Amino acid sequence: MAASRIVFLMYHELELAGRKLCQSEPGYVRYILPLETFRRQMAWMKQSGWRGLSVGEALRYPAAPSVCITFDDGCETDLIAAAPVLREVGFNATFYLTAGFLGTAGYLNASQVRDLDAQGFQIGCHSMTHPYLSDLPTPELKREIVDAKFRIEEIVGHPIEHFSCPGGRYDQRTLQVARHAGFTTVANSQFHANSAATSPYELGRVAMLRNLTLEQFSATCHGRGLWKKRLQYQARRGLQRALGNDAYDYLRATLLGEPRQ
Ligand SMILES: [Zn+2]
Prior knowledge:
The chain has 261 residues and is an alpha/beta fold.
């Protein structure tokens, strides 16, 4: 892989001993890494000479071996678990917050968001209430994208430029609304590395799964094997489009034993 291609990693809540997760269904927990697993991944990156970047930094596509680190949803563990580990190894990251979840049980509150921001991490937006954006009529889409942006900007006191799509679902309207709102990038969950040739409104990201081995993590940082995941993802998206999101989730939950992600 050429050095100017950068893999964007997508993390969620982290699991701490004795702390209840924000949600408990298997489709959610699948994306939750124990803190120790995350710590080992960051330590491996540091020892192997990789740098961890925020979305803003990654968009410059530096030549040095780098990975972009992102977190979705705005769980409290962004501040109390991920941030200390990242600071220890000197990495940056982007935390995409679900504006309407802030201040509710298990999620960051306003002063914790300001703390994360003041520590130098980048704050992004992950909608107002975490719906599948491609399912929404345009007025609701605006609330999810534009109002959410304003709400987070009110908290941190400066512009928020980066957006990530809940469940990776988006359509052209989503991108238009985000662009008009002043977002300069939109990230999804498609399995591809990004480069200067990638549209900043269609940044791919690789979901970090709970059961990922360190060997698989290393392969992911190098961008190896993403094509296989991409094929699987495209097959899933084809089914989702054919059935609609609700019917697809139902089918997945009942037949495949895999609830919605
Ligand atoms: Zn999410």
